[in-house]
Amino acid sequence: MKSVLPVLTVVGAILLFWVVSVIPMNMHLTADQAQRDGLVVSPATPTERQAYSGLGLTLKNTGLISHTYVLERPRLPSPHQVGVEMWDTIFAKKITSRRSLVYHGWVTLSATLLGFAIGTTLGIQLAVGIVYNKAMDMSVMPWAIASQTIPILALAPMIIVMLGAIGIQGLLPKSVISAYLSFFPVVVGMVKGLRSPDGMQLDLLRTYHASPAQGFWKLRLPASVPYLFASLKIGISASLVGAIVAELPTGARAGFGARMLVGDQYGQPIVTWAALFAAAITAAVLVGLFSAIERQTLRRMGMQAA
Amino acid sequence: MPTVAELAGQALQKEDGPSKAVIAAQRLDLTFQTNDGPVHALKDVNLEISKGDFVSFIGPSGCGKTTFLRCIAGLEAPTGGEITVNGMTPNEARRARAYGYVFQAAGLYPWRTIGGNIKLPLEIMGFSKAEQTERVGRVLELVDLGGFEKKFPWQLSGGMQQRASIARALAFDADILLMDEPFGALDEIVRDHLNEQLLQLWARTEKTIGFVTHSIPEAVYLSTKIVVMSPRPGRITDVIDSPLPKERPLDIRDTPEFIEIAHRVRDGLRAGHVDD
C-alpha cells in the first residue's frame, strides 16, 4: 500500500501533461471549427494560421481554449473524452455489440491466452531440452535469440497469410504470433532457473544416488519457480502485444487491434485511444493476476517473492 | 519380528567386527588438470579408519582435506592409488548409500519445511510414508530440533539450520557420517554448543565420522584420531591417536592432555609450512 502515493503522483503528472497538451495540439482544428461557426478567430484564414505553432495560436486565441476539449475528431482527445468513450463501449453497450470494447477485448484476450499457453509450454520444453541436452544447448539458444531480432510487425502478416493459405484461420494464427513473442522470456528465465541450484546442492543429490529424474522434480524444477514467474509476467504482456499486432496488418474485424485500426482509418482518434487504454488496462490486470499467483505460490513454498 | 535377511545382516556386521577398517586409503593420488597446469591435490595418502572412529582432518586451505573427504564420498575420482569404503569402491559405497554427507552450508531447500528437507533423502531412497514420518521425528529429536518439523528454513538460525542438515544426513541410517567444515560459518559460542551435541550424538549412534575442520581446538575436542595435512602437494604429515576419554565435557579443553595434543597438532601444521 506504500506505493499508492508515488503511483498516484506519477499518474497525476501524466494527466496534467496530457490535459495541458490537448490545447496546442487541437488549436488549429478548433480555430477552423470556430471560424465555420462564425466566431472571431485571429488570424482569420486557415492558411495564415498554418504559419503559427499550436502554442502561438493558443496565445492569440485564449478564448477558444475551452473549445479544444470538446472536438468531435480531435488530434489529441482529452482524458474525459477517452473516459466517456470507454464508459460507453465497456459498460453501456451490450457485450454482444460490435461496438462493445468488452467484445473486442475478449477476442484479443482469447488469442492472447491461447498463445501464451502455447508459448509457455514450448518455452519450458525448450528450456528443459537446453539444460539436459548439450546439442540443444549449443543449437537452440542462438536461434531463440535470433527469432526475437526480427521485427514482429514484418513477420506477423507473413505468418497470417501463410497459415491462411493452408486453411488455418481465426484464433490460431494470432495465437501463433502471441506464442512467438512469449516463449522467449520463458526459455531464458527457465534455463536460468533450472541451472540455479549450485554445485553443493547437486553434490548432495549425488550422495543420495538420486536419478536424473529425481534431480529434476525435487531440485531443479522447484528451484526454477521464482524465475518462471518473472518470465510469465513478461510473457503474458508480450502475448497481448502479439495478439494486437496480429490484428493490425490483416484487417481483422474484431479485437483491440481492429478497433485501433478503425479509429485510425475513419478519423476517430477517440476510438483508437479508448482501445489503447483498454488494452493497457487488460495487460495490467493480467500482470497483476500473475503477481498475485506468484505471491501466493511462493508463500506456500516458503519462499519470499523475488 | 526381524526378518531372516535382517538377522543375517546383523550377524555379518558382528563378524566384520570393530577392528576392520571401514575406510582404507593406500597411496592415494589425485591431480586436477587446470588451465594453470596440473594441481597435485593429494599425494601418497595412506590412512585407515576403523568402525566408530571420529577422525578429524585438519590443515590450511589447499591441503586436500576436503578433496580427501570427497574421494571417500565418491564425489571425486582419484588418479592413483586405492581407496575402499566398507570394502567397496567409493562409487559403489555411494550407490549403496553407505554415508551421510554434511556440507559447509546447510543447503536446505527453501521450499521445503525442515521435515520436508529431512524427508528428501528418504523419498529418493524409496522409504514408505509411515517410515519417513517416523524417521523425521526420530532424527529431529537426535539433533534437538523436536517441534521444528513444520518450520521453513528461513525461520531457523544458522546453527539450527546446520543441525537440521545433520539430521538429514542421519535420516537414512548410514554408518558413516562425512562432515565438511559443517560449523565453519558459525560463531564460536554456537560452534562450542554444536560440538558438544555432536559428541553426544556420536556416542549414541556409534557412527564412524570423518570431519574436516581448520580449527585446532575443534579437532582435538572431537576426535579419536586427528589427521594433520599440509598443502602443495596435499599430503598427511601426522596422524595423532587421541588419548582423551570418550566422555568429554567442554572444560576438558583446559587440561594438560588436551593442550599437549593441541601443541602436537600445531607443530604438525607448522612443519607443513616450512616449504612456504
Based on Cα principal axes, name the global outline of chain B: globular
Proportion of β residues of chain A?
under 5%
- Order of helical and strand elements of chain B: HEEEHEHEHHHEHEHEEH
Give the N-terminus to C-terminus distance of chain B in angstroms: 61 Å
Strand content of chain B: 15-25%
Helix content of chain A: over 70%
Principal-axes geometry of chain A comes out as elongated
The average pLDDT of chain B is 86
What radius of gyration of chain B results from the CA coordinates? 19 Å
Taken in chain order, the helices and strands of chain A follow as HHHHHHHHHHHH
Largest sheet of chain B: 6 strands, mixed
Count structural domains of chain B: 2
Helix/strand/pairing category of chain B:
alpha/beta
Summarize this entry quickly.
The complex is a heterodimer of chains A (306) and B (276). Chain A is mostly helical.
Write a structural description:
The complex is a heterodimer of chains A (about 300) and B (about 280). Chain A is mainly α and about 300 residues long. Chain A has two domains: about 70 residues, no CATH class; about 200 residues, MetI-like fold. Chain A contains twelve helices and no strands. The radius of gyration of chain A is 25 Å and the shape is elongated. The mean pLDDT of chain A is about 90. Chain B is α/β, with parallel strands linked by helices and about 280 residues long. Chain B has two domains: about 180 residues, 3-Layer(aba) Sandwich (Rossmann fold); about 60 residues, no CATH class. Chain B is about 40% helix and about 25% strand. Chain B is built from nine helices and nine strands. In chain B, α4 packs across α5 and α5 packs across α6. Chain B is globular. Chain B starts with a helix and ends with a helix. Chains A and B meet through α9 and α10 of A and β5 and α4 of B.
